[in-house]
């Protein structure tokens, strides 16, 4: 495929997902079938052969205008030969004369309606012109030749708001090729774009009917009902799952909501833990953790259990670490500092972790440690202004205002479009010049601070 096509394909997007026909790139297109190529050329006049092979040669060097001229001569000699229309279609497409390309290829399809090479060419024409309605029946025909086109169909149906057909297309390829993160993301985007809760509800019910032993489907439907504030329906699904699997942990997702409502907090926490231990669904985990954090805010006596769950049950998960870290920062900075330090041991060059640790070291007035860690961070991130700022603050508090000014100035050179951090730099410079008894510079940076505060965002 020509590089120029990527410009067009990049425009074809569905719900933020790049909409490139995967089937186009799944494999190198096979040569034309013998039934199409061998059009009894040996029995036609030599002049036809001369023009035809001249057209192929010109197309090979991307001189499509000359190729078309030669092919039109072929049509004068043998107007009915489908191979000529096929080659004309490809050359017109290369020249972006899509109307002529479509007309030529449709002539070939009248004679060979199921030929996948011809279908593939006209399909690309419809993609390039974003004519989704015409592309759909062609993709449906191509899907009979290659399962890859089901993903294209899902995108096309989504673009034309045929959401049920889009979901069916995703299901069709899942059945043949198994689970795919890309298709799962596409499915979720379709549900989001459709803005039809009944569509998602029907899909989840169908999944349970088809795969009654997969607990995750029950869990997702319970989560759906919870988001819709239809708690009783969520309980009914949980009860149905328990009848099928008396020891099911997934049912506890609904049960913990019920326990919270009934103020049976210990039972609620026990059910939360069971779900967290047994589900892989990160969305559900996040929901549970948020509910548990809210419970602790209302009843601080459960804080040890929250911390234990986050540390013991979800420690390998980055998301849970972030939740725990944020919670600790708000409630216990020393615990938060130790938590981030432990994570930093396993990931010493993590940019976000370094920022959090040095920030807490500054707040806790561990200036020597903050200075040392800032210098180490700058060895790996020499153009990150955050670490120059932290270094400057540490130096100023270690009674080295001249060196602090140097660090602030160097950091400002790397600063791009960050008004808040720029303000911190100016305030750091001002404080350093106060220590140096330089009223001119103090006034200069006061003016910079006021100008920046008054500047429109």
TrEMBL record:
SUPFAM superfamilies: TPR-like
Pfam families per record: ARM_TT21_5th, TPR_8
Keywords tagged on the record: TPR repeat
Species the sequence originates in: Mesonia profundi
TPR repeats: 82-115
Protein name: Tetratricopeptide repeat protein 21A/21B fifth ARM repeats domain-containing protein
Every Tetratricopeptide repeat protein 21A/21B fifth ARM repeats domain range: 330-409
């Amino acid at each position: 495929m020509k590089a120029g096509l990527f410009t067009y394909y990049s425009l074809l997007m569905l719900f933020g997902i790049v909409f490139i026909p995967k089937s186009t790139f799944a494999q190198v297109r096979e040569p034309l079938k013998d039934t199409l190529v061998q059009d009894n050329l040996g029995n036609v006049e030599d002049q036809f052969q001369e023009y035809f092979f001249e057209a192929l040669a010109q197309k090979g060097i991307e001189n499509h205008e000359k190729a078309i001229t030669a092919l039109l001569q072929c049509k004068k000699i043998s107007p009915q030969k489908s191979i000529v229309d096929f080659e004309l279609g490809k050359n017109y497409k290369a020249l972006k004369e899509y109307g002529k390309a479509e007309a030529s290829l449709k002539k070939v399809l009248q004679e060979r309606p199921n030929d996948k090479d011809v279908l593939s060419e006209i399909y690309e024409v419809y993609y390039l012109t974003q004519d989704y309605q015409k592309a759909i029946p062609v993709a449906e025909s191509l899907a009979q030749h290659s399962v890859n086109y089901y993903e294209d169909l899902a995108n096309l149906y989504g673009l034309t708001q045929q959401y049920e057909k889009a979901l069916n297309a995703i299901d069709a390829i899942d059945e043949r090729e198994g689970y795919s993160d890309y298709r799962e993301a596409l499915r979720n985007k379709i549900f989001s774009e459709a803005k039809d809760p009944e569509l998602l509800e029907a899909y989840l019910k169908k999944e349970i009917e088809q795969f009654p032993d997969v607990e995750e489907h029950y869990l997702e439907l319970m989560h759906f009902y919870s988001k819709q504030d239809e708690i009783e329906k969520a309980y009914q699904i949980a009860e149905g799952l328990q009848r099928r699997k008396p020891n099911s942990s997934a049912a506890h997702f609904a049960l913990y909501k019920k326990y919270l409502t009934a103020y049976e907090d210990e039972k609620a926490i026990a059910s939360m833990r069971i779900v967290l231990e047994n589900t892989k669904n990160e969305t559900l985990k996040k929901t549970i953790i948020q509910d548990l954090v809210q419970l602790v805010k209302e009843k601080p006596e459960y804080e040890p259990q929250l911390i234990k769950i986050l540390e013991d049950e979800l420690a390998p998960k980055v998301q849970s670490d972030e939740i725990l870290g944020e919670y600790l920062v708000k409630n216990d900075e020393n615990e938060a500092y130790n938590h981030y330090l432990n994570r930093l041991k396993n990931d010493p060059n993590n940019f976000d972790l370094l920022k959090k640790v040095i920030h807490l070291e500054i707040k806790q007035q561990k200036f020597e440690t903050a200075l040392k860690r800032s210098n180490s961070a700058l060895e790996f991130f020499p153009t990150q202004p955050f670490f120059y700022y932290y270094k400057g603050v540490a130096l100023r508090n270690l009674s080295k205002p001249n060196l602090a000014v140097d660090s602030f100035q160097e950091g400002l050179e790397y600063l791009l479009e960050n008004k808040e951090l720029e303000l911190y730099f100016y305030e750091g410079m001002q404080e350093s010049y106060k220590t140096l008894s330089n009223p001119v510079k103090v006034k200069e940076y006061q003016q910079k601070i006021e100008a920046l505060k008054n500047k429109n965002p």
